């Protein structure tokens, strides 16, 4: 079996995926025309050419500009269906989708419009592809905690339709400590908790996310490697890290894939997963992330299976949902 076939055959969960980051320029332009929204680019080609990033912020500026094309329930539905088709082709059996409601409500798009469209796509993906999914509301950390509380208030009537909350956007200067009260409230509401930490921010932000916010997984977390005590703790506690290798290279967290520390984290015993983050912007969906990383770092089939197993074990699902995926994974060769 060649690597591509093997990777696509691995039953895997995608746990770090911003649905707004799956907006391909073709759909962006189609939606912008339909909604009479002006984009900062003249064409699909010019848009793709603009995707040369120097850091997280240079990406976020374009990502928020592109998201302006999304206005109606049907737009969010089409966006997520395009993702699920790709995910299915990549062997994803379960996806936990991040969405950024504040990006949309700030433009006058109702929280319900976003949620209704995404949820309809989640149901359709289950029916069409057998993919299960969850929705995780991400708070924008460059905004205030009070603005986060306002987003939570808009979500409150729909809590049963959400599985968790996360924290994304500009990391540097916006430590997890800024959101202690908000995450405490979300915990009381029974939501799962995750946060981006240690992508561009220091290892101390990972410690804060664990200790002050009480998160169950760390999104990215690659800068943990700079703190041996933290590394040992993450291994001991088996805290899942949702690593996104192609994203890390595009945003210059690492100069190239061969320099990525994913294998070192795996060798140190951490519960590492591979995910695509914002695949429309970073040049590859989840299977491409597995393949390119395996080639660059020399990951074995056994290591790829372990990464896929980690993703299934770290998913916010019941044991009854997880068991058949794990059984199927175990049938693949090492
Ligand atoms: N980091 C922070 N915020 C984000 C990202 C990311 O990788 N993608 C979308 N929002
Ligand atoms: Zn992310």
TrEMBL record:
Q: Which residues bind Zn(2+)?
A: 16, 18, 196, 277
Record keywords, A-Z = Hydrolase, Metal-binding, Nucleotide metabolism, Zinc
Q: What is an example of a GO molecular function annotated in this UniProt entry?
A: adenine deaminase activity
- GO terms under biological process: adenine catabolic process; hypoxanthine salvage; nucleotide metabolic process
The EC designation for this entry is: 3.5.4.2
Entry annotation: catalytic residues: 199 (proton donor)
Adenosine deaminase domain boundaries: 11-327
- Binding of substrate, residues: 278
Keyword field contains Zinc: yes
Cofactor-binding details, from the entry: Binds 1 zinc ion per subunit.
**Main EC class the enzyme belongs to:** hydrolase
Spell out the reaction equation it catalyses: adenine + H2O + H(+) = hypoxanthine + NH4(+)
Kindly list the cofactors needed: Zn(2+)
> Site annotated as Important for catalytic activity: where?
220
| Gene Ontology cellular component annotations, sorted alphabetically | cytosol
Q: A Pfam family name for this chain?
A: A_deaminase
- Which Gene3D superfamilies does the UniProt entry name for this protein? Metal-dependent hydrolases
Q: Which NCBIfam families match?
A: aden_deam, PRK09358.1-6
**HAMAP family xref list:** Adenine_deaminase
Please give the family membership noted in the entry.
Belongs to the metallo-dependent hydrolases superfamily. Adenosine and AMP deaminases family. Adenine deaminase type 2 subfamily.
Question: What does the UniProt record say this protein does?
Answer: Catalyzes the hydrolytic deamination of adenine to hypoxanthine. Plays an important role in the purine salvage pathway and in nitrogen catabolism.
Task: Please give the name of this protein.
Answer: Adenine deaminase
Per the UniProt entry, what species is this protein from, by scientific name? Thauera phenolivorans
């Amino acid at each position: 079996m060649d690597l591509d076939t093997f990777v696509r055959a691995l039953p895997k969960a995608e746990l770090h995926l911003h649905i707004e980051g799956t907006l391909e320029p073709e759909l962006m332009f189609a939606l912008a025309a339909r909604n009479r929204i002006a984009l900062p680019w003249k064409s699909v080609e010019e848009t793709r050419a603009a995707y040369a990033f120097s850091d997280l912020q240079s990406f976020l500026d374009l990502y928020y500009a592109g998201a302006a094309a999304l206005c109606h329930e049907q737009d969010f539905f089409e966006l997520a269906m395009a993702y699920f088709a790709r995910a299915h082709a990549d062997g994803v059996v379960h996806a936990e989708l991040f969405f950024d409601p504040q990006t949309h409500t700030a433009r006058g798009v109702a929280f319900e419009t976003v949620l209704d469209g995404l949820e309809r796509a989640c149901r359709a993906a289950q029916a069409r592809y057998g993919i299960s999914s969850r929705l995780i509301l991400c708070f924008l950390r460059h905004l205030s905690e009070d603005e986060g509380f306002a987003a939570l208030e808009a979500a409150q009537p729909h809590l049963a339709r959400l599985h968790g909350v996360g924290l994304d956007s500009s990391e540097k200067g916006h430590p997890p400590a800024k959101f202690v009260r908000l995450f405490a409230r979300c915990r009381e509401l029974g939501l799962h908790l995750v946060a981006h930490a240690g992508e561009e921010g220091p290892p101390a932000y990972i410690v804060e996310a664990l200790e002050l916010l009480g998160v169950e997984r760390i999104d990215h977390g690659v800068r943990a490697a700079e703190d041996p005590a933290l590394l040992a703790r993450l291994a001991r506690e088996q805290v899942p890290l949702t690593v996104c290798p192609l994203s890390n290279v595009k945003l210059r967290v690492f100069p190239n894939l061969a320099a990525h520390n994913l294998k070192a984290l795996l060798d140190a015993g951490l519960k590492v997963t591979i995910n695509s983050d914002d695949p429309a912007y970073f040049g590859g969906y989840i299977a491409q992330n597995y393949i390119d990383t395996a080639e660059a770092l020399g990951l074995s089939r056994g290591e790829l299976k372990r990464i896929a197993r980690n993703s299934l074990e770290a998913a916010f699902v019941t044991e009854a949902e997880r068991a058949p995926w794990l059984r199927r994974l175990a049938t693949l060769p090492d």
